[in-house]
């Protein structure tokens, strides 16, 4: 695989402009969420997705497989920054607690550390160190290191499980997670703001017409996704992820190089790149809206499996959401960029949705039981 080496180091001014662009893109996305949460989900996020429920309605292929064949390896990419480290510690705590519960099909765990050097969590969390992209190549968009990290990891490791879950540090397992994939169809979470059909002009730069309609591109990112290590009954074949990952990386870099694409996709560019790369390899995902919930927009836990706490949660003391304005009570992971949150965070006021209450309770349990939490 060839990585371009003629890219110069990004200037401080460019990084500042990128940071400002990220801020405004995030603000616009959140505004869109507030106005379109109910009506913009589209007909691909419907309640009948539970037809793929892996516990009660398995396909013939799954019925023929043994229990061990359904295990999946949990893999997340991370940096050595304190902000990433404390999230990884909480995520790993809940992985260990949920791993052996009834209904779980989790196998091993790897934190893929793309900072290039070992860090202070090597003895606490199973970790594999990979190299970051060459200096300046990510242009301040650190997420570009994610596909490159998976490429290196897959080239160098042997994984016992037949499937891989691609996860992120700000994921918490709230219920035991079964294998939601089926044979050659990985399982993914449908994001309402990933809209290939509405961006066809841009998508066609990377997904030519001869490949098929843009509706073949799933509205997903790479995480959470459960995907096969290898095609069933084809022992010498490369895994789906081994085939997709280099394409995912190269398309991510090409999209970042294209000014129109970079402007249109912003901080979700790498998500679009994974979706396009998957379609280029003829891989379509089972879309599971029960895969994940995202407080404060998703109000109840129900039978969902992962809490994704990417959004800040701001409320008045009356339990009213004050998004866009710092609340009298709040939990936002970005409040802890330079170090971990303290133990025993205050619980939300009465009236705040179950999803937010459970999130804070789970953070508090993890920080209370992880040794040395308050030690820098």
Question: Can you characterise this structure?
Answer:
β1 (72-78), α3 (82-99) and β2 form a beta-alpha-beta unit. This protein is of the alpha/beta class and 376 residues long. The longest helix is centred in the N-terminal third of the chain and has 25 residues, at 12-36. It has nine helices and twelve strands.
Strand order of the largest sheet: 3-2-1-4-7-6-8
**Major β-sheet profile:** 7 strands, mixed
N-to-C SSE string, H for helix and E for strand: HHEHEEHEEEHEHHHEEEEEH
Proportion in β-strands: 5-15%
Distance between the termini: 39 Å
Report the structural category: alpha/beta
Question: Which runs of at least 5 residues are low in confidence (pLDDT < 50)?
Answer: 1-63, 231-237
- Number of distinct beta strands: 12
The total count of helices amounts to 9
